[in-house]
Amino acid sequence: MTADEQTETADDDWSYARPGSLEGMLQRGRGQGAYRAMTDPEAPALIYACLARDHRYMTTIDEREIYLARLVRDLRLPLDPVADCGSDLAAQVLRLLGDADADAVSGESEAEDADEVVKRIQMKRERPYRDTPHDELFALLRAPAAPGTANDAKRPVLFELARRDPDPALLDLAEELVHGDPPRPMSGLPRAVRLLGAAALDHARRWVVDMDHHPLAFIGTSVLSHHGDETDLPVLLARFDQRVRRHDWCGLSVFTDAFARIGLPAAAVGDRRVSWLWRNSPHSSERIDYLKAIVALNPYDSGWFLGDALLDCESQVRLHGVEHAPLTKRNRVLIGRLSTDPLESEELRAAAVARLGSAPPG
Question: Is 30 among the domain residues?
């Protein structure tokens, strides 16, 4: 077995550590992990491990840079081992800490990412069907496409429809607009259908009956999450549990938003599930949605989560914690530190100053 094959095998066998352990919390970017690391002798080795192997579930949107940079700084960890980690994440941490050696790190990958973003923006601005009458757009969707051209020909039509007033007639066409093996909705269709709002509920409820095999079940679930009512809760809970069992973490905030929106009937079951996600999910960019759902479902017991948010890896989570966490002695100290932390954004520092300045003495 070659060295590359051994690395691949190791990655296949790798899994996140237990969510309640310090290692598991640091891997997930949890605030409680950062707090415990301040006094745990095992923390330095675990932090270096998080820098050597990027544990983000989605490296493009999950945040860890400030979280790990703050730990390195506050624990006064030597920077040479950080540089030795050799990962992009370690280089980003060194940049944040102002390490001069990081200046030599190439910015080529960031430039390539920026180019891709520009291309996507340009594609969105292109509207070849801007002046096409509505009826002609539907005729284009109904027309058979030449083999191999269906996606290219019809995708911009759906994007154009998504920019216009919603038309329920799209629902009767939706099942024809799938492709691939296994069949998947054509790009642009999910957004166009979601814009129909409650008008899409009857179709959505039919699509989710066979959640494992219907090509539009995902769109149907999204419609129910945004516009369904108490009667849709069993389906949403079943779909949520199915996704969690598969460790399919991306997009679960759609369900937590639904649990919070539907309200009290969902609270008994929804609160437990969202709290479980807060502790277990490695997909930290959705954690702000979990936090808001926890507060909505159980506001009287949400203080602990808001305190945990103050040292979270996600900037929006920290900001929400600064604005809403109970002003206990511990939280006051943490908010005070955030108010002057140069690693933080001006927005968050200002919010921390305002929160402490407007709070009564305690």
Answer: yes
**pLDDT value at position 208?**
87
Q: Which residues pair with 43 in a beta bridge?
A: none
Query: What span, in angstroms and rounded, lies between the C-alpha atoms of 79 and 64?
Result: 17
pTM equals 0.78
Number of structural domains the chain divides into: 2
CB 317 within 8 A of CB 291: yes
Closest CA to 124 of 151, 158, 150: 158
SS3 98: coil
Bridge partners, residue 36, by sequence: none
Range of the domain at 25: 16-115
Answer left, alpha or beta for residue 175, where phi above 0 means left and psi between -120 and 50 means alpha.
alpha
Q: Is residue 106 part of a domain?
A: yes
- The C-alpha atoms of residue 258 and residue 241 are separated, in whole angstroms, by 14
Token code pair at residue 52: 């050597």
Domain endpoint, select from 115, 138, 169: 115
pLDDT along the chain (362 residues), means of 10: 38 79 97 96 96 92 96 94 90 79 35 43 63 87 67 76 85 78 73 88 88 82 90 88 88 88 64 88 94 90 95 97 96 96 95 84 52
Q: By CB neighbour count within 10 A (0-12 exposed, 13-18 middle, 19+ buried), where does 132 fall?
A: middle
Whether residue 337 contacts residue 31, with contact meaning beta carbons closer than 8 Å, is answered with no
For 148, list phi and psi in degrees, rounded to 5: 85, 0
| Residue 181: inside a domain | no
Cβ 277 vs Cβ 251: under 8 Å: no
Decide: 342 and 59 in contact? Cβ < 8 Å: no
Domain boundary among 57, 86, 115: 115
Of 312, 294, 293, residue with least CA distance to 303: 294
Instruction: Note whether residue 39 is domain-resident.
Output: yes
- Per-residue confidence (pLDDT) for residue 145, from 0 to 100: 64
Tokens of 6: 């051994």
